[in-house]
Design goal:
The chain is mostly helical. 37% of the residues lie in helices and 8% in strands. The model has no long low-confidence stretch (mean pLDDT 91).
């Protein structure tokens, strides 16, 4: 189980091709890929324009891979700039979609909040659903 920033694009595509569950569940599955929590899964899917309920083996793996790397690297950069001695995932001021106290993105899109078990997904209607 590789870390999200260590997995190759090919390994990621192969992982997705084997999965028929929803893409957000796959991103959160620490047995498949490590290091992505609920908030970052929302951010990655928003960046890629992919709905969280999309079937994993139907999504464009290359596009999602690029978003995963970009979003996680950007978060590391912003968090370490804000507090260079201590990296924690609690600094989320820069997030674009996983915004529990906000009902719109900075672009004015209405944020949809979906409860699935104990987990909430934040997304917008413009994110494409792959089935």
């Amino acid at each position: 189980m590789p870390d999200a920033l260590d997995i190759t694009q090919r390994q990621f595509a192969e992982l997705l091709m084997r999965k028929k569950s929803d893409i957000k569940t796959v991103l959160l599955d620490q047995k498949s890929i490590r290091g992505i929590g609920n908030a970052y899964a929302d951010e990655i899917l928003y960046d890629a324009g992919i709905a969280p309920h999309s079937v994993a083996n139907k999504v464009p793996a290359n596009k999602l891979y690029r978003s995963m790397i970009d979003v996680l690297q950007d978060a590391i950069d912003k968090i370490s700039k804000a507090n260079p001695d201590y990296i924690t995932g609690e600094n989320r001021e820069f997030m674009k979609i996983h915004l529990p106290k906000t009902d719109q993105t900075r672009n004015g899109e209405t944020i949809i909040v979906d409860n699935k078990g104990s987990r909430k997904s934040y997304y917008v209607a413009g994110q494409k659903e792959y089935r």
